[in-house]
## 1
Amino acid sequence: MEQIIATVRGLDGALVVVAEPGGDLPEPVWGDAFFYYAPDGRIPGRTQPYGTIVTKNLPGDEASDLDAADRWRVNVHVDRATFRELTGEEPRDLKRRRDFTVADRVLPHPVYGAQSWVCVVRPGERTGDTVVRLLRAAHDAARARSGRRDERGSTPGTTA
């Protein structure tokens, strides 16, 4: 987990927020990490993270059994083509039954798969490089979206 966080921190313009006691984020997410493209170092106001690491079950998201000892999950937003390549299905047409407790396998996110999110419980030998590649691509996509928003915001007569 720390290796993935360090890798994302090394990306140009990346902001990694690790929720901790006493911080601004609520207790249910303490210990979790959120990845943003934010070259100014501030959490973007109108943007979701492009990746996260979750360390425990949350209400409505228990399928990966993250409350068990030494379990955590990386979640990454990917484009539709990548989602199809990794899962064999369209994001909005998920029909296959899956065991979301399996570690070191790329799967659709158990809650947000339809929004083109994939996940890996405890990335290891089979998926570690893939997770890093996906996070780099998600970071690049977030940077491109930020650039487009900036361009729209600087055009006379438009709003960001």
Note: The mean pLDDT is 93.
## 2
Amino acid sequence: MTVTKWTVDDTHSSIEFSVKHMMIAKVKGNFNKFTAVLEADPADLTTASIEFTVDAASIDTRNEDRDNHLRSADFFKAEEYPTITFKSAEITKKDDNEYNVTGDVTLLGVTRKETFTVTFEGQGKDPWGNEKAGFSAAGKIKRSDYGLTYNAALETGGMLLGDVITLSIELEAGKAVQE
């Protein structure tokens, strides 16, 4: 195949995260609003260009008070920094369907290189004849690297929140219609 443009079908895609809470459990959540554009040959992502824009205010942990706190100045400062972005810079093949995708993550005005493992899940036509491709991505970032340092000491020792955020992304993308 050749490199073509793919747009993410957000009704069949998700960005989820988890963080350690009280050093004993994990709290999970997701971002409900995001866009992504891929220019890729799904059979060989090494020449792909991948860009994400996430609406920081769309954070959802199934708890309105916590979500509002996460949008506040203690965490995402969503009014001042409404988006979180990713732009790929280097993609290397690990095996037949798995890649290391390194790129720039920008969060709270801080840009850092991060690497995610991306798996090409397959490709096919939907019932209406549209070409679709599926991808999974996983990785971890340290929230303190981006200035997300809010925390509280526990009386039993340790901290309320872990520093490592685990990300899991599932994407279904449709081949863009050529004009």
Note: The first strand starts at residue 4 and ends at 8.
## 3
Amino acid sequence: MSINPEELRTLGNPALLRQPKTAFFCSRQYPEAIERPTYVWALEQRYAHTCVLSGFHSKLEQAVFRYLLQGPQQPIIYVLGRGIQPNLRFEYGTEIEAGRLLFLTPFESTVRTITDETAEIRNLIVADLADQFFVPYMTAGGNIDRLLNHPVAKGKPILTLDLPMNLPLLQRGASVYRPMGALGRVTGLPTEPRPPAI
């Protein structure tokens, strides 16, 4: 699978596709212990202005999206599992006009519901466009596990957290994410995810 960006529907700044991109995936069910180090990772992406690419579907993914939005120079690519709806331009007009947010999808606007099939296509697009992955946790044998075994993800670097439950990721060659340490004491991290607006 090789995605031609010209075949995708977009809303926002398509120039973000030319930046190095880190794909962020996390399983829907995850241990609470991963939340704080994941927010530390998100803070570092804001600090470094790293382009983060995701479907932002799971609870933690949605919370990280909201957190990344608070970074005034943070580039974000949001791949949808449905068509682009008119409310997106209204809700995210400031970020879109600033050129730091891009929504993209292969689906027409008439596709309004995310299904297992559209979610799989969305995830494949994220994996295909990514240069590397940050996966703080995945359920063994789940959707993310299967995705990382797909040819579009093969050979791309994976970062994960140094936790016993991430042994399956480490065994497949993932590297342990270690905070840069340049930020000093981390403050201002969200204490709990906010509900999604999308």
Note: Residues 56 and 65 are 7 Å apart (CA to CA).
